[in-house]
Amino acid sequence: MYYLIDVGSSSVKIYKYFERKTILLEKKSYSFSKVYAKKCMQPLEKADKEILYKIFEYLKEKYSLKRNNTKLFATGHFRNILNTRDLVDEFYQETGLFFNIVSQDLEMFYLDNKFAEYSKYIGQTIAINLGGGSSEIIYYSNGTTFRNEKKLDFGVNSIKQQFSLINSVNSSEILQDIIEYVISKLPDTIENCQNLILTGGELTFMKLCEYPLISNDLFDDTYHPYIIKSNEYYKYNKFLFEKDIDFLLSKMPENPMWMSGARAYCAIAQAICQKYSVENIIPSDFNMIDGVVAQEAKTVTVCGSFNRHLEKIAVVIEQLKRSGFVVLSPQNTDVIGDENGFVVFKNDVIKNHCTWPIESLHLQAIEKSDMVVICNFDNYVGFSTIVELGAAYICGKKIVFIEDNELAENMDSPIEIGLLQ
Question: Given CA atoms 229, 288, 106, 6 in this order, what sign does their dihedral have?
Answer without folding.
Answer: positive
